[in-house]
């Protein structure tokens, strides 16, 4: 049995998958153990794996990596998804903003923050990688912190004050540190 699945990425992200002189595509194929057929006109990326390769690689992880690149992550950050404990969360901001482009831009600005400060703080306090691209916010994070990072983004999108979100993240981090200390004491 072989595997074949198509992932659509924005046309402007196709070049990131291909890379200079096709080097990134070749590296992705070697790392993911799949073949990538890319239609640069439509943004369709067909992921193929032979039956023999299916024992070595999870083709669904390959789909996640390609989708993550399409959602604005660099290939290096997207490859974090190959680690067993990493999850990929996608938040569609249109659920909050509706069709309003001005609301979408305002909310994206709140999530990114001035000079990227809000995104950077969320990343630092949760260990997540966050991409704000198009009408999506995508998060690559370990399972233990995925909900915390997702909730922080959703709170900012919903209008919560930055300070409130940072305090919640800081309290969660402090609690986690105390829990680890208790494990060592016992």
Write the layout of secondary structure elements.
Blueprint (H helix, E strand, L loop, with lengths): L2 E6 L2 H8 L4 H10 L2 E5 L4 E6 L9 H12 L4 H4 L7 E7 L1 H4 L3 H12 L4 H10 L2 E5 L2 E7 H15 L4 H24 L1
What multimeric state do the chains show? Answer: single chain
CATH superfamily annotation of the largest domain: K Homology domain, type 1
Order of helices and strands: EHHEEHHEHHHEEHH
Helix content: 40-55%
Residue share in β-strands: 15-25%
Q: Give a quick account of the main beta sheet: strands, pairing sense, barrel closure.
A: 3 strands, antiparallel
User: What spatial order of strands do you see in the largest sheet?
Assistant: 1-3-2
Shape verdict: globular
Which architecture of the largest domain does the CATH hierarchy give at level 2? 2-Layer Sandwich
Mean pLDDT: 92
Rg estimate, integer Å: 18 Å
User: Alpha-carbon distance between the termini?
Assistant: 50 Å
CATH topology of the largest domain: Ribosomal Protein S8, Chain: A, domain 1
What is the CATH class of the largest domain?
Alpha Beta
Specify the number of helices: 9
Decide which structural class fits the backbone. Answer: alpha+beta
Total strands: the figure is: 6
Question: How many separate structural domains?
Answer: 2
Which segments are poorly predicted (pLDDT under 50) over 5 or more consecutive residues? none
């Amino acid at each position: 049995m072989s595997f074949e699945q198509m992932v659509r990425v924005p046309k402007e992200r196709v070049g990131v998958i291909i890379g200079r002189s096709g080097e990134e595509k070749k590296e992705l194929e070697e790392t993911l153990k799949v073949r990538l057929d890319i239609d640069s006109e439509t943004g369709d990326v067909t992921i193929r794996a032979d039956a023999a390769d299916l024992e070595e690689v999870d083709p669904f992880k390959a789909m996640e990596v390609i989708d993550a690149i399409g959602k604005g992550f660099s290939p290096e950050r997207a490859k974090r998804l190959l680690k067993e404990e990493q999850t990929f969360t996608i938040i569609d901001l249109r659920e909050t903003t509706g069709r309003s482009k001005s609301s979408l831009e305002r909310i994206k600005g709140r999530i990114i923050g001035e000079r990227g400060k809000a995104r950077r703080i969320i990343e630092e306090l949760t260990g997540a990688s966050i991409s704000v691209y198009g009408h999506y916010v995508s998060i690559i994070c370990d399972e233990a912190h995925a909900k915390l990072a997702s909730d922080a983004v959703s709170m900012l999108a919903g209008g919560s004050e930055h300070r409130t979100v940072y305090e919640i993240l800081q309290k969660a981090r402090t609690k986690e540190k105390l829990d680890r200390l208790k494990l060592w004491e016992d």
